[in-house]
User: Fold this.
Amino acid sequence: MDDLSTPNLNNAENAAIDPAMPAPSVLEMHPHDLATQLVGKLCHDFISPAGAIMSGLDLLEDPSAQDMRQEALNLITASAKKMLTLVHFARVAYGAASTSEAFSGAQLEKILSDVFSTLRAELDFAIPADMLFQKPAARTLLNLGLLASNSLPTGGKATLTAVTNDNGLTLTADAAGPRARLKAEAIEGLKGLPLGDGLNGQWIQPHWLWSTVNEAGGTLDFTAETDHLVLTVKLPG
Assistant:
């Protein structure tokens, strides 16, 4: 298991890195830079449903496309629902961690279930509906769920669990499916490392998860095997 609270580049995804090279230091990103990266991700997430809504409205206004009116209305409805799903997710997953707001397991399951309905992966939310999560834990759980789904590009099942004990809270995301994997950019983000040569969009959400866990004084680990990935977060009580 790799401890992501400190830099560790021994994962197979990073086999191309020269072992003789010193490991990069954990990234201390300026808050403005972090905000810029998050805003860029949100714009990327929102542009697709927003563009589809505009396309549907254009069809409704086109006199030569009146026979496609129902298709246009269906497109607008589906895209508006997707946009609302993304907004609800972003409010908790990227919202301020210092608020006193708490979320039940049922609320978090609804948010993630709506997100998974737009993806190929299946969600198994194995957490009691009445279990309460303070904002940092809720934010962590949603980001774990999204990362697990993103690691299943061709489908599969992401199982989320939560266990409390005297030491705090343990959150686990178990992703199983064909070609389940973490991209190199995601691993860099999970370790709190600066982005290498990859894509910002593949790096920022894992880095945001690392930042959330690190700020809460927790640890983030993962194990990766063929078609199987497990991410584990431990948060202090």
In short: The mean pLDDT is 86. The chain has one domain: 2-11+29-236.
